[in-house]
Amino acid sequence: MKYEITYQKNSKLYKEIIEKKELRKINKNIIEIKKLESKTFNLFKKKITLQTAYYFFLELNLMLKAKIHIKEALELLLKNKKDKNIKEFISVLLENINCGKGIDFNSLSFSLDSSVKNFFKIANSKGNIYLTVNALTNFLKFNLKIKKELIKAFSYPFILLITLFFCIFSIFYIVLPSFELFLFQEGVNKNLATLLLFKLKDFLKNYFMHLNIIFSLSFIVVYIFYKLNKRCAYLFDKIILQNIPIFSSLVLNLQMYRLFIILNILQKENYEFHSCLNSLSSLIKNKYLLDKITQIENLLKSGKSISYSFSSTKIFDDVVLNLIQTGENSNCLKKATLEIEKIYKNSYKRKIKSLCFWIQPFVFIIILGLILWIIFAIFVPIWSISEIIKY
């Protein structure tokens, strides 16, 4: 069993993950000890989709706004719902409320957006379930919107990529075997394109399964290390956000857009800025970005200004930092963060359009290149034979 401890050192707050056996040995000024849930895979969890979760919390939010008690609202929803998984989920929530545990569920039993569990933690710690459910509903709506936008933006490029792989498969497994015997007869002049094409075909034929196994195993190993090792997860998330050309810029803008959406949702529900940052830490999935937010939180607790704390992370551009400084100095931080949200939203949409714009011609160029390669590798030798026969 692992625990996350928060301790104070040199007037600063730090967080550390330790084993259960190390708890008694530590000699630190401990502020908080938090038990960490064990990681499991989603194979046997009851699946609740993002859309199902959103509509459930939308209905619950409307009932709470109508001044219906949380327990009564859940009982009404339990009677009206037909989906087996969501009914079990509501039953668990009701059971925990009746037992005095607050609104909560076991994340090992249900597979749904991790933000739900984290918002419940906020509700139980802050004591205002109505504001938290409203904030959660808005956040799930945002997640659903982003998901639909990504599907819409990348559906056509994805179809093009599938077409490309289908073309490659057809060329190497259907077209080339039909011409192989003819092209490798004596008297046929084989050019460099022909030799390279058939060498590539032989390589794929002999090592295709090996490549698939290596790729699959690599993916599984990386996934396991990401899930179970915090350092690997941090390094991987840092690479995703900073070191991949074009893609990193898009992901960073999406993460920042998501970050300020959450911040503004919480501020609209009358949470203080410092309290919002504390709640924000539990809602961020990217470990590298989470480390930066924790850094901001620690600097604020040690008495530093908001603008200084944000600038010290070195992940925000000058425009964003200037807006934060202006908002802090003029006591209009809510307006500043709303403007920052718009900036990241527009930047994210521009980058999505730009990436989709460049993917399409890139795939077309590859397909065109394959067609030209086949013409030079197969049809040019055939035409040369027809010329010899003609004369």
UniProtKB/TrEMBL annotation:
The keyword Cell membrane applies. GO terms for cellular component: plasma membrane. Pfam families: T2SSF (PF00482). Keywords: Cell membrane, Membrane, Transmembrane, Transmembrane helix. The chain crosses the membrane at residues 154-176, 207-226, 355-383. It comes from the Bacteria. It is found in: Cell membrane. The keyword 4Fe-4S does not apply. Residues 56-177, 269-381 form the Type II secretion system protein GspF domain. Signal peptide: none annotated. It is a multi-pass membrane protein. Belongs to the GSP F family. PANTHER family: GENERAL SECRETION PATHWAY PROTEIN, TYPE II SECRETION SYSTEM PROTEIN F-RELATED. This is Transformation system protein. It comes from Malaciobacter mytili LMG 24559. The lineage of its organism: Bacteria, Pseudomonadati, Campylobacterota, Epsilonproteobacteria, Campylobacterales.
